[in-house]
């Protein structure tokens, strides 16, 4: 299964490994969809978090910022890894001790939060507060993901979606500041 | 100001440096008090966070857990460093660019959250959610610390107090689990 | 697969879920062994890291500290999750885009480091340096785990083992300081 | 000292606060220089870390990547805050318990590593290893910053400089991957 260090020339030889970033990115988008998470649903949480600070905020701009977050490699890696663990738990294939914790969204497990934090961190520590807030209130799709009645397991995905929304909110806050400073600069130059 | 590597014998010589953990601990308690933060006030936030999960929770037990958090070296170091920066900002002594951000609790500053997270982390990632939640809702003393009308600056302290409360909540969750498992063990042995 | 909220009384009914900490702990020890990692091998890395600071350090004391680290819930959860992902990669069962990255220990993947950090963090930020150092030098068993010639995949485990050794080193540093201060206290009292 | 919520019109009135990102950025550059840290010196550590992976690496490209890291708000905030604490320690103005720890670069202090990590994190967890490695080996300017013989205190700055170099290294690794994939894409299209 492991690539030979010196690729052989037999016709069946696997190609030497090389990271395929596009494949990782498209798998991320595809798997979010397969697990019921559209960009719109994440953008709704962003709107929930940011509307009071930026009343002019549009859903289009929220979706755009969610997309920018999803373009980040660290985010894609955390999304795929978390969804993978959710799926394996659904199939009952995890090590029993781990299976029980993931299956039951054990509150003392914590690895779901650890993965979520590698997402939030993408735009710095200012997103921590927003992540914790939505993780507690479970607005919009987070409530559905956290509803354990439909046989699906989203122990990782609900934290991941909250983290993407928190990161997108941080991104918006940074951009809005940049816009504000640009406008003030233009005012000064008049 | 720096200690000589080989301590000299002159009578005025400074003692060679050696960390005095007790001094750091008592300074932490003292400075929290000086800045208006009693253990009770932090314990109230813990109660706010944990009451719904553990209805039998007492203020005494919340205070006890806050004290255990404050016994941790990492927590003491973050508390003292944060309060120090708040004080320097009050005295207007920071580098001007930094002074403005700390003085105005700039939401894009983020170093206050970074310090807070080194506190929350003391009992693992399960505290992140509680930290974000109280940092948003500002219950109890957090509202007062965040009220910028009295000339005092608590840019770091309000995050620090929320983080101590979140860490104490995590500690309680871990201990309650241990108690529960002990009881079940005793039931099995009957 | 999800536990019913109200346990039914049929004889085949699954017991209502309750975290079994002992099961998680013993699975952690067992799986480390199954993957070729003994406490001795981790203790050797601790010795490598700490010997120059504490020449009196014994292997027994290193092993003892590794055991204390392994008693921490956050550490157990990260170990089981990481080993699980390594095993699934060995079996070729991951989502293809993820499979390629884990199988090839892709340096831009980073989720292995994220999990490792939740371990290092258990005794605070002072362990980060030791983690990075052994992750680069790969002393002792880390070299073997990182050797991709034997068909086994240890993308997560090599970082996890380095992180446990770094955390044990931090624990030793904290304890040695406590001993030192106790001795000085006794000297003062004579 | 706190800004009035409604700006008054008296001629001496302070302008209402608004974050001035350019001021923060130029203060960051200026203070690094004042403390003896040029972009070249940081770039040398990047070269030390990355040369074996990318033999074609030039100092110009290393400097460019250091500059990109320094353009990040989180990095600027951590740099200014860390240097501020170093300066206050040099002037002996910290709370005594804190003064002793910062002045003596106490290894159990850890807040310097916490700040450093908010810098490393800017390009994800892949930088942790490089940070730990240079923090241990102290190549180039890190040795000088860590030399406690000249009366200057760089308890925070040495970790900060290592963190900037580690972040720049991560940035290079991400960009080199992008270049590689672009080239392969072009080869396929021929």
From TrEMBL, chains A, B, C, D:
Gene3D superfamilies assigned to the protein according to its UniProt record, in alphabetical order: PgpA-like
Residue intervals passing through the bilayer: none
Residue ranges that the Swiss-Prot or TrEMBL entry lists as coiled coil: none
Segments forming domain YutG/PgpA: 42-173
Protein name, entry field: Phosphatidylglycerophosphatase A
Annotated source species: Paenibacillus profundus
């Amino acid at each position: 299964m492991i690539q030979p260090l010196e690729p052989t020339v037999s016709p069946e030889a696997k190609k030497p490994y090389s990271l395929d970033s596009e494949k990782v990115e498209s798998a991320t988008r595809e798997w979010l969809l397969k697990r019921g998470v559209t960009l719109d649903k994440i953008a709704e949480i962003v709107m929930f978090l940011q509307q009071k600070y930026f009343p002019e905020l549009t859903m289009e701009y929220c979706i755009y910022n969610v997309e920018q977050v999803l373009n980040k490699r660290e985010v894609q890696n955390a999304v795929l890894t978390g969804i993978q663990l959710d799926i394996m738990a659904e199939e009952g294939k995890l090590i029993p001790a781990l299976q029980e914790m993931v299956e039951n969204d054990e509150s003392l497990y914590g690895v779901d939060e650890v993965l979520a934090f590698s997402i939030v961190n993408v735009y710095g520590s200012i997103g921590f507060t927003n992540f914790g807030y939505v993780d507690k209130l479970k607005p919009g799709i987070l409530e559905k993901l956290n509803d354990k009645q439909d046989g699906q397991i989203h122990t990782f995905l609900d934290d991941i979606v909250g983290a993407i929304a928190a990161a997108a909110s941080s991104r918006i806050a940074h951009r809005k500041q940049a816009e504000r400073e640009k406008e003030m600069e233009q005012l000064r130059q008049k």
